[in-house]
Amino acid sequence: DISTAGMTRGDLLNDVVMEEEFLATGVINFEYKRSRVTPAGVKVIKPMIETLKQNPAAKVNIGAHADARGSSDFNQRLTEDRAKNTMKYFAKQGIDAKRITYQGFGEKLILNRCSDGVKCPENEHSVNRRADIKVKP
Length: 137
Prior knowledge:
Blueprint: E1 24-29, H1 39-54, E2 59-64, H2 72-92, E3 100-104, H3 122-126, E4 130-136
Parallel strand pairs: 2-3
Antiparallel strand pairs: 1-4, 2-4
């Protein structure tokens, strides 16, 4: 817990870093213009499913992303499909859908220099085609 009680206005003297606690985290990647969970993605997800089964109160959050190629509208729809398909995989493995939140972010959260109009090789674009998965206690 952090409180600002008793503090006065002035310059920030120290940075405060707040981090959430997770039981498990992982990143799965997607093929270009595809939204299905790949076999490589399944390998990342399986340990999270076990963690969720061992911790019945835990919840999972899925945030899906796209590279900057294609229109913003297309990428938004694509990431919504990626997030939903990832959620469906968890649900098919016995995780109650009420424990899962998911969202598609389109191309808003690019991890590298490969934004609109920047020429990048495929391996750099592929980093942005992902779903970040976090299991919260």
